[in-house]
Amino acid sequence: MKIRKIDSLENFSGTVLVPVFETSVKNILPVKFENLEISSKVFYGKKDSYYLAEDKGNVYIFIGLGKTIDYKSLKTIFRRIASKEKDTLTANVSLFLPEVFTEEQAEAMISGLYLGTYNIGHYKKEELHPFLQTDFELSILSKSDFSKSISKALKLTQAQLETFALVDLPPNKVTPKYLAQWAEAKGKQYGFKVEVLGLEAAKNENLGAFVAVGKGSKNEAQFVIMNYSPKSSEANLKHIGLVGKGITFDTGGLNIKTAGMVNMKCDMAGGAAVLGAMQLIADLQLPVKVTAIVPCAENSVDAKSFLPSEVIQSYSGNSIEIIDTDAEGRLILADGLSYIIKNYNPGYLIDIATLTGSSVATFGYECGALFSNNDAIVKTIQETGESIGERLWQLPLWDVYSKDIESDIADVKNFSGKAVAGAISAAKFLEFFTQEHPAWAHLDIAGVAFLDNEFTKTKHATAYGVHLLTKFIEKIITHGKC
Predict the structure, then answer these.
(1) Number of domains in the chain
(2) Residue 351 — very low, low, confident or very high, per pLDDT cuts 50/70/90?
(3) pLDDT score, position 27
């Protein structure tokens, strides 16, 4: 997407996008722009409405924003325009940005327009979106300089589009090795180091829980380790640790799922969010150290699959009784958390996963479940999520729930066996492997990572977490702490 700034439409020919804040349906004054006047009887800026007009060969799309608007809504509105009005958009599009707009609003609009180019039909023969054509140019009509916001929006959206594809592509394409190779390619492109442990290397490292989950699949598990440091090395950089669940397909294992398996290609959405965040962090050259681990495996059904009632050894040295092979995500995360703490000891530690149906039962599809032992992290990450429309709400980690993971035969069991408090007992299981890390948070995003929306006929990826993790890290950089 080529972008340039213009001062007027004098020599412009194409489509002009004009955002309009709401006036009133009874307003006697029309909406005015250039030589156009639109009566309030037909358009007055109502949120989610838009109006097309033509003047002197140019097409004008007036876009209603309502009286006030939040970041997510603004992004969605402009994604809708780019997605639904492809036939109206030409090789030349101009976006009017009034001086009253903030940097964040400019970022949201550009992000939305770029996200609108996404097409879930990866295996269909379809024409490229106008914005992706080589001759396309977006002109920014504004007296203010929004170049920094626009540049950041393009980098953000590129990472989110990559994440969309990782989650939406089928599981015969996105295998553990595919994710590992993706990480290696992006590491070379954007500037972060990648190390991949295959099955034998994982066994040698005593990643027992990780190995157990992946050993039933013909697609070899891959333990992906990424390290980013800025090119301009600075002293006393904050060190952030990220761990993302990378289950490329989840049958449930021998405790096989009886419903909803068709959507289980999305069970690596937490890992995809970490991968997308690593691309974005490196692309922005943030002044921070980041270590990220994505344990990638396929939970399949085979003669080699791990069994309910098995006792396995984890990387931490603790034994785990397997109550349910469909509670596999927490097993690979347990080894990921233990590994990152022992070998890298980051100052902050966040894990993100499509972990439990319980979180969906609690919050529906509106927000992720947040667990943390650090009040400052809770406050910062919730505020961050609220500001961009990636909401989180905290659930407790009270000691009373510890009994749900107590085992008679092993140090801990992977499932409570109860039909209640599933998200909490899963979080307590993960907490067991954090070695009381003082700044840890767990994000259960099962209800927000893969959704029905207006942009596709089937469920598809949201890239939830890419922006959230990156913006959270930016806040740590800016304020020195949470």
Answers:
(1) 2
(2) very high
(3) 77
Specify whether 109 is located in the same domain as 167: no
Gap between the Cα atoms of 64 and 443, Å rounded = 34
358: how many CB neighbours lie within 10 A of its CB? 21
How long is the chain?
A: 482
Specify burial of residue 454 (Cβ count, 10 A radius: 0-12, 13-18, 19+).
exposed
Q: How far apart are CA 241 and CA 257, in angstroms?
A: 32
Q: What are phi and psi of 104, to 5 degrees?
A: -65, -35
Local structure of residue 355 (DSSP, 8 states): -
The helix or strand, by DSSP H or E, that contains position 163, with its residue range, turns out to be helix 147-168
**Residues 380, 471 within the same domain:** yes
- Provide the whole-model pTM: 0.97
pLDDT tens readout for residues 8-50? 999 999 999 999 999 887 777 788 999 899 998 899 999 999 9
Whether 111 contacts 157, CB under 8 Å = yes
User: Hey, what are 164's tokens?
Assistant: 């969309």
- Mean pLDDT across 41-60: 94
Is 162 a domain residue?
Answer: yes
Check residue 17 and give its pLDDT: 97
Enclosing domain of residue 351: 158-479
Q: What CA–CA distance (Å, rounded) separates 221 from 162?
A: 21
Q: Which two tokens stand for residue 222?
A: 């891959």
Query: CA dihedral defined by 117, 242, 176, 190, rounded to 10 degrees?
Result: 50
Which of 98, 123, 145 finishes a domain?
145
As a whole number, the mean pLDDT across the chain is 96
> Is 306 a member of any domain?
yes
Q: 269: pLDDT confidence band, cut at 50, 70 and 90?
A: very high
Q: Which residue in 83, 84, 86, 40 sits closest to 64, CA to CA?
A: 40
| Residue, of 259 and 109, whose pLDDT is higher | 109
* 31, burial (CB in 10 Å: exposed 0-12, middle 13-18, buried 19+): buried
Pairing of strands 319-321, 412-413: parallel
- Asked if 289 and 239 touch (Cβ cutoff 8 Å), the reply is yes
Tell me the one-letter amino acid at 196. Answer: V
Write the CA distances from 435 to 22, 223, 329, 360, 431, integer angstroms.
53, 21, 19, 28, 8
User: Which positions are catalytic?
Assistant: 257, 330
